[in-house]
Write a structure and sequence with these properties.
The protein is of the alpha/beta class. It has six helices and six strands.
Length: 185
């Protein structure tokens, strides 16, 4: 099965590290992956998005214009990419950063209250891992176990002391949307 996903938000929200973690997790599971980031020169505060493809077979091109899923961390990302989701696809978003919710009825829409979870964890920097866990609970692209194995490869060694809190954030995110949306293959 092939999953074509776009992660989008502001620079500084962990979009690139979240998407890179998913890509490395696919490698851990022996899948074919493509990771294609896009961000403005201003990085923090500017727009950032990344296309990730995870597949059981060879990937012909990393360039995709229609996606199986959108993981959106802010309103501009929903506004820009909602139309790019394939019918029966998934739009999962940070409900605390979205003022105008998505309107499509031919996709699964899953709002995630990331703010309350990062406050419980007492660490605002793990928003992206809460979101990745939530996404993987709805769309089983890779296992949470593969993500945990991939984290040390994604994080520079100087941040390995944060692996435990990131694993906890993943697991909390995984539990957030089980009732909000039904899984898709």
């Amino acid at each position: 099965m092939t999953h074509e996903i776009i992660f989008a938000g502001f620079g500084g929200q962990g979009i690139l590290s979240m998407s890179m973690t998913l890509a490395y997790s696919g490698v851990v599971e022996g899948k074919e992956v493509s990771w294609m980031p896009s961000y403005g020169p201003e990085m923090r505060g500017g727009t950032a998005n990344c296309i990730v493809i995870v597949s059981d077979k060879r990937i012909s091109s990393p360039i995709v214009s229609k996606f199986d899923a959108l993981v959106a961390m802010n309103q501009p990302s929903v506004d820009k990419f909602e139309k790019s989701i394939k019918p029966n696809g998934l739009l999962i978003y940070d409900s605390g950063n979205i003022v105008v919710p998505p309107t499509r009825t031919d996709i699964t829409v899953a709002p995630v209250d990331i703010e309350s979870e990062v406050l419980k964890l007492n660490n605002l920097k793990v928003r992206n891992m809460v979101m990745l866990g939530a996404f993987l609970s709805v769309c089983q692209v890779v296992s949470i176990g593969a993500v945990v194995k991939a984290l040390p490869k994604v994080f520079p060694e100087r941040y390995h002391h944060l692996l435990k809190i990131n694993q906890e954030a993943l697991e909390r995110g995984e539990k957030l949307v089980i009732e909000a949306a039904t899984p898709i293959a």
